[in-house]
Write a structure and sequence with these properties.
The chain is mainly beta. It is built from 2 helices and 22 strands. It is about 5% helix and about 30% strand. The chain starts with a helix and ends in a 9-residue tail after the last strand.
C-alpha cells in the first residue's frame, strides 16, 4: 500500500504497485464520487443467530452496485469511535505530496517537493548525505530520511495535519495521521471478498483519533492545497454544480452514545469463572465515546442471580477513556446469571461531551456450571 502511494506522492505520474482501472476524469475540478462511513449493522447468520458487524455505507454520493435500499445515501448512524474509517473517493489523481509527509532520521516529519523521484530519496538515505538535496533538510544541513531497514526508500508516510478537516457539530475532530492515508490506486469497480468498497479509488482514508461525538452531524473539508495535477481544488457535487474547494454538500450523522461491546458479551453462556492465570474475573465495558470520569462509579450496577453484588469498583482503563473494567474478586459464581446495568438519563453515565444514555442499558450472561479458567 505505502509503496504504491509513494509512487504518486513522489513522481506525480505513475501509481507504482497498481493504478486506477477506470479512465480518470481530468476535466474540471476533482470531484468526490462517494464518501463511505462505517455503520453498525445487525446480521443474522445461517443458524439464526444475530451479531453486529461494521459495514461501509454511503454517506455521500451514489454507486450503481450499491443498493440504495440497503446503503442509504445519507448514513444515519456512523460509528462514533472504534472501527471507524471514512473513505473519500475521487474521480482523478490528486497531488499526493500535498496530502502526506514522510519521517526523517531525527524523528521529525518532512514534505516531499513535486518532482522528487526515487533516486532523490535514495540520496537522502544512509550516512552519506552529501548529495541529499530534496527531502528532510534541516537548518544546519541534510537530516536524511528514516530508513530503518536500509533499503534506501521511505519507511512510512502520514497524513499532513490540516490537509483533511473532519468537523462534527462545528468542532474540528483530531485525526490519527498515521492511520489516515492517500490511496491513488483503485477504480469504480467494487472488489469481492473482504476488500469490498476499499477497492474504490483514488481515495483518501481518514481515521478519527479519538472518535466523533455521538449524535453529532459531521462534514468533511480540505485545505486549499489539496488539488489535482492541474492545481484545481477538490469539490463535492451539488445541485448547483461542483465549485472547486466547496465540499459543503457532504454531511452525515453519528450514532447516539451507547455501549458498543462488552466482555462477557450480552447473551453469552458457559462463561469461565475466572480469567486466565487469575483467581478473579473481569467485566469489560466498551462505550463509543470517552467518558466523564466522575459519572462512572455510581452509574454501573452488577447483580448475580438477581442479587446485587456489592463493593465492586468500576474503573476506567488507563489507556482508553471509553473502556470500563470491573474486577470480581474470587471470580464469578458457578451456574449463575449475571447482569450489568449502566444507568442512563441525567444521573447516569456521561461521555466527555456531557451526552447521556437515552435509557438504562443491561447486558446478561450465564456462567459455567463448574470452575475452569478462560483459555
Amino acid at each position: 500500500m505505502r509503496r504504491s502511494i509513494m509512487a504518486v506522492l513522489i513522481s506525480g505520474s505513475g501509481c507504482g504497485g497498481g493504478g486506477p482501472v477506470d479512465p480518470l476524469n481530468t476535466d474540471g475540478p476533482p470531484r468526490i464520487l462517494q464518501v463511505l462511513a462505517r455503520e453498525r449493522v445487525v446480521v443474522t447468520d445461517d443458524e439464526g443467530h444475530q451479531h453486529v458487524e461494521l459495514h461501509a455505507r454511503l454517506a455521500f454520493g451514489d454507486h450503481p452496485d450499491l443498493d440504495p435500499e440497503v446503503d442509504d445515501r445519507e448514513v444515519g448512524a456512523a460509528v462514533a469511535r472504534d472501527g471507524q474509517r471514512l473513505r473519500v473517493v475521487v474521480d482523478e489523481l490528486l497531488r499526493g505530496n500535498h496530502l502526506e509527509e514522510i519521517p526523517c532520521a531525527d524523528g521529525t516529519w518532512g514534505r516531499v517537493p513535486v518532482g522528487t523521484d526515487f533516486d532523490d530519496i535514495a540520496r537522502c538515505a544512509g550516512t552519506d548525505l552529501s548529495r541529499c538535496e530534496s527531502v528532510c533538510l534541516g537548518a544546519a544541513g541534510p537530516i536524511g530520511i528514516l530508513d530503518a531497514n536500509g533499503d534506501g526508500a521511505i519507511d512510512d508516510t502520514r497524513l499532513i495535519d490540516g490537509a483533511v478537516i473532519l468537523t462534527c457539530d462545528g468542532v474540528v475532530v483530531p485525526l490519527d495521521a498515521q492511520r489516515s492515508y492517500y490511496q491513488p490506486a483503485g477504480s469504480q469497480l467494487i472488489a469481492g471478498g473482504s476488500v469490498g468498497t476499499d477497492s474504490l479509488g483514488p481515495a483518501i482514508a481518514i481515521t478519527p483519533a479519538a472518535g466523533m461525538r455521538p449524535g453529532a452531524r459531521c462534514t468533511i473539508g480540505f485545505a486549499a492545497t489539496v488539488v489535482d495535477k492541474q492545481g484545481v481544488a477538490i469539490c463535492a457535487p451539488a445541485d448547483a454544480g461542483c465549485t472547486p474547494g466547496d465540499t459543503s454538500a457532504i454531511g452525515f450523522g453519528v450514532e447516539a452514545f451507547t455501549l458498543a461491546a462488552s466482555e462477557p458479551a450480552d447473551g453469552a453462556t458457559e462463561v469461565a469463572l475466572t480469567g486466565h492465570d487469575s483467581t478473579d474475573a473481569t467485566i469489560t465495558l466498551l462505550l463509543n465515546a470517552e467518558l466523564a470520569a466522575d459519572s462512572v462509579s455510581q452509574a454501573i450496577r452488577v447483580t448475580a442471580g438477581g442479587e446485587a453484588v456489592e463493593e465492586l469498583a468500576p474503573v476506567m482503563a488507563e489507556d482508553d477513556g471509553a473502556t470500563v473494567t470491573i474486577t470480581v474478586p474470587g471470580g464469578f459464581r458457578a451456574g449463575t446469571e449475571y447482569a450489568v446495568t449502566i444507568s442512563g438519563g441525567a444521573t447516569g453515565i456521561k461521555d466527555r461531551y456531557d451526552d447521556t444514555l437515552a435509557q438504562d442499558h443491561t447486558i446478561r450472561w450465564t456462567t459455567a456450571s463448574e470452575q475452569r479458567s478462560a483459555p
